[in-house]
Specification:
Aspartate Aminotransferase, domain 2; 4-stranded antiparallel β-sheet; 7-stranded mixed β-sheet; 13 helices; about 15% strand; alpha/beta; Aspartate Aminotransferase, domain 1; globular; binds pyridoxal-5'-phosphate
Amino acid sequence: MRHDFTTRPDRAGTGSSKWSSMVEAGGDPAKGIVPLSVADMEFVEAPEIVEALRSFASDAVFGYTEPTDSYYDACISWQTRRHGWTPSRDWMVLSPGVVPALFNAVKCLTEPGDAIIIQPPVYYPFRWAAERTGRDVIENPLILDGDNRYLIDFDDLAEKAADPQARMLILCSPHNPVGRVWDREELRRLVDICLENDVFIVSDEIHDGLIMPGYHHTTLMNVMTPDEWDRCMVCTAPSKTFNLAGCQCSNIFIPSGDVRERFEHGFGMSAIESLNCFSYVACTAAYESCDAWLDELIDVIWTNHELVADRLSSFRPEATVFDLEGTYLQWVDLRCLGLDADRLESLMHEADLYLDEGHLFGREGDGFERINLACPTSVIEESLDRLQHVLTI
Ligand SMILES: Cc1ncc(COP(=O)(O)O)c(C=O)c1O
């Protein structure tokens, strides 16, 4: 491997949200334990990004900064190269995060009292985007098939989308936490149902670069035809794929001029106009220079996934480690332990494991855990040793 995926940076006491929450929950970094919760990575940053930031910092004036041509070119080239879709630069609205973009979309494109469809178990801010802005939530829960694979319940979706209150669906593609990479056929069925019922689709594709071997991410834009694009927007960012969440930079693609104008107006009302000057540099370097780093990262995540699957099946065969198609978030079904949410969490803490508890993603996640695999393999090995210990005493 050309890049370093074995060194674990010491993030304790650095203000890292993931590490601070572990400490608040009683985890002691002095014991050498590492939280496997919040979706960022425990690797040293890609040197190409660090170098770009270093060189920028040594020459730049840190005044108000607009995105440059090379920023737009890098973002568009990433979409073209990785997803076979070339957006127009005019469609891009920059946002400090995908979550702020989701909230803004709900506020600008729906009315209080409308309902937003979500597909739990799902990334919990989707629910907040509706509830905190006075909208209702309509749930279209994913279903598990006989092979323990999560699927969209299309019959239920057709019924829910037909409710006149339903105005928007927030899609997680690839899906956090269940790790599915939706295929073209699934996405087209979802689109047909939404179009038939005039439900606008917000596709959160923040995990679009984290696709496991043998799978292919299909952007919603390639599933919808250009004459349908005014019924959707796609949210992207380098923050998950290249570990840049702290740089706060995302790119929202909105082909419809009318929708874009409403969305931009919403950001204008919160005085969200441009990003910080470092985020452009980090994003450009990530999208332009880090393909090799990303290939190596995927190998490590895949190794970690296989390790969790093999080890858990050896000491707890009744647990289900779901196939990982995309993201670095491993969804695990531990309902076989027969524990309620509090007891499951305290058992994990007994093992010095600080994970994301499944119930956070909706009641469908009760008895499940989400394990963040984006860390050196040695960390996963040690974590599994501790899990084995508490599950076999
Ligand atoms: C599906 C999904 N959307 C959005 C985010 C966060 O986006 P941001 O930090 O850009 O607001 C995450 C973070 O884990 C995520 O998994």
